[in-house]
Amino acid sequence: MSAEKRRSSSSGTAAVPIKNIERELICPICKELFTHPLILPCQHSVCHKCVRELLQLNYDDSFDAGSECSMPGSPRSRVPSPSMERLDRLVRSGSISSPGWRRGSVTPRVTAIPCPGCQHDIELGERGISMLFRNFTLESIVERYRQAARAAVAIMCNICKPPQLQEATKSCMDCKASYCNECFKLHHPWGTPKAQHEYVGPTTNFRPKVLMCPEHEMEKVNMYCEVCRRPVCHLCKLGGSHANHKVTSMSSAYKILKEKLAKSIHYLISKEDQVRTQITDLEQLISQTEDNGQLAERQANEHFERLFETLQERKSEMLRSIEQSRNRRLNHLKTQVEEYQGMLENSGLVGYAQEVLKETDQSCFVQTAKQLHLRIQKATESLRTFHAAADPCFDEFVLDTSREETLLKEMCFGGVPDPPMIDLSHSRVYNEASISWRLSDDHLPTDHHVVEYRRLGGPSQSPSQEDGEDSGVWRPTERVYGPSSVVCDLEADSLYSFRVRSCRNSMFSPYSPEVTLHTPPAPALSFLFSDKCGFSTERLILNKRRDTVESVAGMAFLLASERVQTGSYIGLDYIIGDTGISQGRHYWAFKVEPHSYMVKVGVASDSKLLEWFHNPRDTSSPRYDHDSGHDSGSEDTCYELSQPFTLLTLGMGKLFIPKASSSSSVSSANASSADPGNRVLPMPQRIGVCLDYDACRVYFYDADTMRCLYERQVDCSGTMYPAFGLMGSSKVQLEEFITAKRLTF
Which residue numbers delimit the COS domain (predicted)? Predict the structure, then answer.
């Protein structure tokens, strides 16, 4: 590229309006523009300094967010510390380690961090940050943004000395320095190698010409790993961590990814009117939210004002009653005091009686003394049986407001809880449904959750049954205090809808969006992989739980390579379930890793297993078995015959429907499977198999949607077993629900 072209390219790039993309240039940890961003394995970018500070957390800091983490300006003050549960998991898995760290060490180095973008645990390995690529593309965009934001601030020449400091006119990408015109001519004279250096407009972002491999520092990256989604060198592919991964050339990956990105951008640009319409809708929602929020505030004020008025009225009424009762009692007691004061000598009643005794006229004395004597007797009686005229206790006015206080405390003044979201990636449905959900990142603590479900119907349900009491009626479960719940007693081959809501302080959140799941057509068969019947320890790796099997190219396969003369010969390693089927309908589900080369799944009878395991072959032709998935032609002549086994082929992200001479053996969804284009389907994330032993028929499903992909007749004369065949780098994992009962037992 000539200098003029480089300058025009640079100026063209700088002319792109980037001031509106600041949101994409902010580090999720420090909330500032990226500085030397690194690409994590999950493809999110984080500042180099932020990753370093997170990795410098010692063991105690990881479990206790101390004062250092709360210092302003530190990335640790802006990112939540890893939870106790997550750190426990990292410790158990060995992710918290350091070179030379011993088990008794107090402060191991954390080499696994949660990604701030997706919250997945990122294992950096022993080499830590050195294993991460710098995101030079993002770094260049950030630099252009900085230049656009500080257009008035010039980049100065790195060679000139004050006070003759000049503004830089170009930057050399080889020297990694900026120059004014005079200094550039001086340091890049014509006819010297430096004259061939690449130069661009003034910049402070100097990126290397060639991207080097972080694992093999002297090697250039020239390939792209499709499994890890990162550039690799040829040493990584030959003997490194990417040896068994699918890789492609860098030019091919560049072309494919650039075409995909261009198409995606073109699609978004073509939908600009739709985006603007949705932005208008969102702005209307914002306006409605503001109006409704103000209305809610006014209504809340009105409600509380009414409460205050009611309480004030009750308060005034009660205080008035207390005052009236107090005055009445005081009057009674004061009157009684006056009466008792009259009993004292020379005062009141006694003094009056003493004066009457001085009367000498008998007729006058008798006329007055009779009534006076009655009053004296009454006073004497009251003296012997003293009772206060009023009770000084006001117990009848003591209020018990505990119930009302409880009701007020249970009122939620913090707003309605946010609705939870059902997590389909962790929700499964069999005879029972395991429903998981997640809450928003900034949610407040909740008291409990309530799961509700209803049956929407099944394929075999009649219209009269659909109108029954059970159809369409939401049924709640018991209170749930965690992020998942199990719903029992679900009917087979039926559609169920689920929803969840949270409760805090007696106030319920809105319901989550409804999620519809389809129950399998039969009860779940619980089994584990068998490590005894025909299991090849040389080429198959079985984990301790016996729910995951992986095939590897062992030494025996390598030693047998000299007997392989053509590329049409393959070797399959079989493994079966440890539970057989001799009656009824049974269903099981599993996951085949997308990178698997070839996996065969299905059922096989005990007689066929004896043939497979007791007549071993180092290599076998694809024409040997009728269901090998290869269009040899000889398969079609006997395909309709009922065989004691049925295996479906999956591999390299595809599912292959076997070739059939009649569409009767294939589900209605694949009635046109004779067309080769329709016989290759994308491999589902989860695959389900249903065996109807009594009807001698086997079905293969997309376990997420319960769509039948393929079905056919099978000879069930003996005991049938779940069967799996693996070749190359392949991996199969059983569903947790399938293995749970067996593991518990």
Answer: 357-414
